[in-house]
């Protein structure tokens, strides 16, 4: 498996654990734990371009791969150009992490211990797909659609 090259820089302070980007069996590329992540810990954050929800929803209609999170009723963040590896976190119906919005920041927290090499996943919940996208997570409890 090849990894997407990441710049050789020190881990930012908002990134609490090392995460690698590699091809994913779920979809495209995924974010994988590069070290053991204990249960109930902040894994890190993703940073991106802040915009109005209205602009974000328009932008979402123009791209096949969308990396946008609405952080309030009026603001959204687009992560398409972010260099943060957590932007590659895929959906799973039986996730090992959760996405939290705190003070308009998008954070990821582990639900249980995540082993090195394990893909980090979250339940996307309500999404723009409106149940039209087939879920490929492979979990025994898979809901079938996003």
From TrEMBL:
Give the top-rank taxon of the lineage listed in the UniProt record for this protein. Bacteria
Where are the coiled-coil regions? none
The residue ranges of the SET domain are 17-125
Q: Which GO MF term does the entry hold, naming one?
A: methyltransferase activity
User: Could you confirm whether the keyword Cytoplasm appears in this record?
Assistant: no
GO annotations of cellular component type = chromosome
Q: Does the keyword Methyltransferase apply?
A: yes
Annotated localization:
Chromosome
**GO terms, biological process:** methylation
Which keywords annotate this record? Chromosome, Methyltransferase, S-adenosyl-L-methionine, Transferase
Q: Which PROSITE patterns match?
A: POST_SET, SET
Residues annotated as domain Post-SET: 131-146
Q: Which SUPFAM superfamilies match?
A: SET domain
Protein name per UniProt: SET domain-containing protein
């Amino acid at each position: 498996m090849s990894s997407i090259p990441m710049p050789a820089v020190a881990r930012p302070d908002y990134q609490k654990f090392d995460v690698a980007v590699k091809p994913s069996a779920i979809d495209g590329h995924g974010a994988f734990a590069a070290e053991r992540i204990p249960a109930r810990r902040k894994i890190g954050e993703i940073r991106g371009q802040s915009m109005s929800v209205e602009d974000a929803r328009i932008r979402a209609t123009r791209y096949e791969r969308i990396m946008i999170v609405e952080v309030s009723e009026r603001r959204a963040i687009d992560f398409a150009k972010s260099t943060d590896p957590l932007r590659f976190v895929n959906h799973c119906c039986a996730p090992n992490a959760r996405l939290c919005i705190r003070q308009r920041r998008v954070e990821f927290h582990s639900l249980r211990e995540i082993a090195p090499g394990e893909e980090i996943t979250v339940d996307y919940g309500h999404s723009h797909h409106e149940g039209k996208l087939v879920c490929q997570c492979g979990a025994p409890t898979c809901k079938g659609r996003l």
